[in-house]
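Hello again, I could really use a second opinion on something today. I owe you a coffee for this, so here goes:
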Amino acid sequence: MRAYRDHIFGTEVSLAGLAAPAEEFGWLRTVESTLSRFDPGSELSRLNQARTARVSPLLLDVLLAACRWMACTDGLVSPFLGAELRRLGYDRSYELLGGHDAPTPAPAARGGEVRIDPDDRTVELPPGVELDLGGFAKGWAAARVRARQRTVRGLVNIGGDLVCWSSEQAWTIGIGDGPLRVHVHDTAAATSSTMRRTWNAGGVARHHLIDPRTAMSTDTDCVQATVLAQDPIACEVAAKCCVLLGIEQAGRFVADLVPGAEWALLDRSGRWHRSDNLPSTDS
């Protein structure tokens, strides 16, 4: 089966078995241009600057979905960490990101609450709060593309946020950056890692996974997490929670958040931890 590839969301996107891959790539580029935190002309960037705006149905849809998952995780995964990422030095596309010597400033004070009016499509951001929908948007977009497909076998992979389906031959999916492989017919998966998208700020190593409880890059014993379930959005959220919580808490949290999900976690020593229901793996 032929796979079509493009570079969107700052990562490689692969589509296979889709009826109209060119149309889907075009739609994904529209999502990227709407939600980019690095393009000053994007709708999301304009909202972060203006603080209050009437937004498009697309931005509203992604934001409301992200807020629902924020509630499900008691705020552990939040779409309102754009200011924290920028403060830590992640203020441009990762390909252009370099280290800098300036010390990291203290977290800015936040004031008020985010106000969202779904009927009027208005969003109001209080001082110190900025949107960042980058990681969540990948899972959301993968789910949307999958929902439009009627083929018997296909795959959507947006930088590791993937969904695949097959009525016959199984797909082989790699677990994160490790040697593990699983064979599946119909599933979604996502990987979150502190080993990717890293940079130095003021002589301190930083990465893009921000713990909203500290407003800093998370520092747990879980350096990579892959979650498999039916919903790519759920996989994206759960994988990030695993890294934020650490090895000991991750399994129980995922079981409650996404019942039936399978997972594989990598700790700092290089040891893998797997859920009991993870399909047989090749390594």
Summary: The mean pLDDT is 90.
